[in-house]
Amino acid sequence: MxxxxxxxxxxxxxxxxxxxxxxxxxxxxxxxxxxVPLQQQLNEALCKLAKYKHLIHSQKHKFExxxxxxxxxxxxxxxxxxxxxxxxxxCDSAFYDGFDKFxxxxxxxxxxxxxxxxxxxxxxxxxxx
Length: 129
Fold this sequence. Notes:
Elements: E1 3-5, E2 13-15, H1 18-70, H2 75-85, H3 93-107
Antiparallel strand pairs: 1-2
Helix pairs in contact: 2-3
């Protein structure tokens, strides 16, 4: 039995028998049954990947925040800590001279300071002040 299928504005397609169509359709269904679970596994893997990327990204931001906190300017805190270390009942001229010297070392003339000297990680309170 010969069938003919004519699509709009195309020449007719002739199929020798319907058995070959059915076989072709069954092969397609088998491949679809194989591809659907693979697609689901791929989607699950992509979801896990997105979660891990988000986790890594958030950990990276936490680390950057810690690094930024470690690199903060500590000049103000240094002045306060110097005052607490050199706390005296009477603030005599030696106290003020020492503080002025420390303050001028720390602040300078208002120009740009040497950044590494006043970073928390590398900061040491001057001992001669």
